Give the backbone structure.
Amino acid sequence: MYKQAIVVRADLKMGKGKLAAQCSHASLSAFKKAERSSPETVKAWEREGQKKIVLKVNSEGELLEYFELAKSGGVPCELIRDAGHTQVEAGTITCFGAGPWDEEKLDRIFGKLKLL
């Protein structure tokens, strides 16, 4: 079984629309990366219903720690930096997408994080 994880900075206190847009950027960016590196995984994830979870962290530092853990574990990941047109400064790292990838592996990496 496969899923995608999106990890978001809760400390930025983004509005619901901004949060949805950032998560969408993360999902699509990670999907494209996974599709290039492991198309069979992506096809299986699509057949299974495209399961996703959205998790929260409390700081940029914590977000980057989890990003590095996932990346070093071979999970295709993409960081999202905001363009700065609305609620946060340009270049602010808001979230990242991981996978789609093996659900058990993602659970081992992100299992301590709370759902958003």
